[in-house]
Amino acid sequence: MKSFIKSLLLLTLLCAGTMVLLGLWQAQWIVAYSWYLLGYFFVITLLTYYLLYQSKHAPLDFPNYTLGATAVRLFVSAVILGIFFWYEKEPTMRWHFTVTFFVMYFLFTAFEIKSLISNLRQNSGKADKKDV
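Given the sequence above, the corresponding structure tokens read:
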């Protein structure tokens, strides 16, 4: 789990560095909400990984944990988008928020999938050997 947290911190720092550079180059692209989104995706990815890490004790329940973690992630993300669109009426701000949200969503989701696949490769066959 420590290597995951280190990698997640690295990804978050790379995103923050990219946001700083974009802010220096095109300041209107980085809105105040971008930093909150970065923090949100760091926390939600950490929470999702923790939920999936719990399946280590019951490898046969891994699909249930995966679907549950994904459902929590999607639901919370939908609520955040809904709340933002409810309160923010300016189209430009909505556009910037939406683009930033989905870019970060896909980056952090791809990172999580990469981490899960590498973890599955290390643990492949362990559940099958217990069943024999």
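The CA atoms of residues 20 and 30 lie 8 Å apart. Try to locate this feature in the token string yourself.
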